[in-house]
Design brief:
Elements (H helix, E strand, L loop, with lengths): L18 H8 L15 H8 L25 H14 L9 E4 L4 E9 L15 E11 L1 E7 L3 H4 L4 H31 L4 E2 L7 H9 L8 E4 L1 H8 L2 H5 L15 E4 L7 E5 L5 E5 L7 H5 L6 E11 L5 E5 L1
Parallel strand pairs: 1-9, 5-11, 6-7
Antiparallel strand pairs: 2-3, 4-10, 6-8, 8-11, 9-10
Helix pairs in contact: 3-5
Length: about 325
């Protein structure tokens, strides 16, 4: 049971196994089926064990993690989850079709090639082939990181939900710094077949032309700089359209409009999010766990290795403004 799990620093350093996986191995979720604990993962059950409340009216303070040497082992995972939550809130989540893991800083994926169009095959005729092969492109992962300076004495009395909010902000900004690399990959893929706006001003017909560029894929997402997005929002067609979800802005033909501060004012990028971009990373968030457990918070290093490649060429199109 979760009360009997022995928590140790070494659980963060097991080969090919995350801290959560190490916990789940000792405290399998299956044994809690049909119980009030069924919705909690192994880490959340440990928070319950040590009565650490990370949000809500009774939210604890940072120092609660350090009540015992075992409960202190849970602190790095709290930081990792907070930073990762922020990263998942960034614009990157609107761009990436799939996230792949790589054991090294070099990644070689696969490509899909169609020998002919998908059409009716004559009886006795040869059926056209689609070939999946190893890609000739090798993606080199780059390291992105941030140092968080905060002494234990400075944060020990902070509420955990407030501290988590600060970490989420760091995570979101870290992910936004990675967006620039993703945009470079997408623009390179779309540049050769890019179209140019018809007149001196961006018009709805230009957006429709971008929509028309998608033949074998669907236009699900348009990335625009804040200034260009403002131009689109005041178009009559946008004023007349109503969004079913207040949290999202959609064009009349259904594509989601996403504000992307890293994108210049001279281009619009259209994506089929389901097929456009692959993100490769060696891990989600890397922390110096031992220092955190020992309350050496003066210099917390958060980092991630990431790279990108396009999956299907037709899934990204560009409009030059």
């Amino acid at each position: 049971m979760y009360n009997d799990v022995k928590l140790e620093k070494g659980m963060y350093h097991l080969a090919n196994k995350s801290f959560l996986q190490a916990l789940e191995e000792q405290d399998p979720a299956a044994q809690y089926a049909q119980t009030p604990l069924a919705k909690l993962d192994a880490y959340e059950r440990q928070l319950k064990r040590f009565d650490i409340r990370v949000n809500g009216a009774g939210c604890d303070r940072v120092e609660k993690f350090f009540t015992t040497t075992e409960s202190a082992v849970l602190f790095p995972e709290f930081i990792r989850r907070s930073v990762l939550q922020g990263m998942q809130e960034a614009v990157l989540s609107d761009m990436v079709a799939v996230v792949s893991r790589s054991e090294s800083n070099r990644y070689q994926g696969c490509t899909l090639t169609d020998s002919a169009e998908y059409s009716t095959t004559q009886e006795g005729g040869e059926i056209p082939a689609s070939t999946i092969m190893e890609s000739s492109e090798i993606v080199t992962l780059s390291k992105y990181g941030r140092v968080i300076q905060a002494s234990y004495e400075a944060v020990r009395q902070q509420r955990l939900d407030v501290f988590a909010l600060m970490l989420r902000r760091v995570g979101r900004q870290l992910a936004e710094s990675i967006v620039g690399k993703a945009l470079d990959v997408l623009k390179t893929a779309a540049n050769a077949a890019a179209i140019t706006k018809a007149g001196s001003e961006l018009s709805y017909s230009d957006l429709a032309a971008l929509y028309g560029k998608f033949t074998t894929c669907s236009l699900t997402t348009i990335l625009a700089s804040p200034a260009v997005m403002a131009e689109i929002l005041v178009m009559n067609q946008m004023l007349e359209a109503s969004s079913e979800e207040a949290a999202e802005i959609r064009l009349p033909f259904g594509a989601k409009l996403v504000k992307c501060p890293q994108l210049e004012d001279t281009v619009l990028l259209g994506l089929d999010k389901d097929f456009a971009l692959e993100q490769i990373q060696s891990s989600d968030v890397v922390l110096e766990t031992d220092k955190l457990i020992d309350r050496q918070l003066d210099c917390i290093t958060v980092s991630v290795n990431a790279g990108f490649r396009t999956l299907i060429a037709d899934a990204v199109q560009m409009l030059k403004l």
